[in-house]
Amino acid sequence: MIHWRKKMSVDGGVIDQDHKHLIEIINQFEKFAERGLTREQGMEILFTLKFYAKTHFRREEGLQLWVNYPFYEGHKKEHQDLLKQLDELIKNVETDSDTPLGALAFRTSELLQHWLLDHVLHSDLKLSDYIEESRDLEDLKLIKS
Ligand SMILES: [Fe+2]
Ligand SMILES: [Fe+2]
């Protein structure tokens, strides 16, 4: 189970809300995995995760453009890789009938936790300084005007 913590805060706003929601979906998958989920239930959660991750990545990339984030291209590529990894996980759950479903669900749940946390803690957090900086600039503009 993942818990969102203050040290994970990127913008104190919509990006944090997105991350919290993504964590919720991953925790939901883990809960189902522990209770013994059907393949269909697992797939449903993974598709929800994929849909929300896509929406979130788009939002985050938009924010990066807005604050002139210099590592935009590399970060966008990371998002694309994450979606590719998620597609592979979905394919595994869909087609791997050799591995018992419980074991497969457990492995998927572990991978999902890394999938999100590694990215948020190592890449998304770098964005927070740039957001801070552009907020300061906006404040300055307001003071001057
Ligand atoms: Fe990101
Ligand atoms: Fe993110």
Question: Could you characterize the architecture of this molecule?
Answer:
This protein has one domain: Up-down Bundle (Four Helix Bundle (Hemerythrin (Met), subunit A)). The radius of gyration is 18 Å and the shape is elongated. Helix 1 packs antiparallel against helix 2. 21% of the residues are buried. By secondary structure, it is mostly helical. The chain is built from five helices and no strands. Bound molecules: fe (ii) ion (FE2) (2 copies).
List keywords for this structure.
binds fe (ii) ion; Four Helix Bundle (Hemerythrin (Met), subunit A); 5 helices; 145 residues; mainly alpha
Mean pLDDT, rounded to whole units?
93
Ligand types = fe (ii) ion
Number of E-type strands: 0
Pick out the low-confidence regions. none
- Under the CATH scheme, the architecture is Up-down Bundle
The CATH superfamily label reads: Hemerythrin-like
Largest sheet: none
In the CATH scheme, what's the topology name? Four Helix Bundle (Hemerythrin (Met), subunit A)
How large is the share of residues in beta strands? Answer: under 5%
SS-based class: mainly alpha
Distance between the termini: 48 Å
The number of domains: 1
Q: Fraction of residues in helices?
A: over 70%
Q: SSE string, helix = H, strand = E?
A: HHHHH
The backbone outline, from C-alpha atoms, is: elongated
Number of helices: 5
Radius of gyration: 18 Å
What is the CATH level 1 assignment? Mainly Alpha
Short description:
With 145 residues, the protein is mostly helical. It has five helices and no strands.
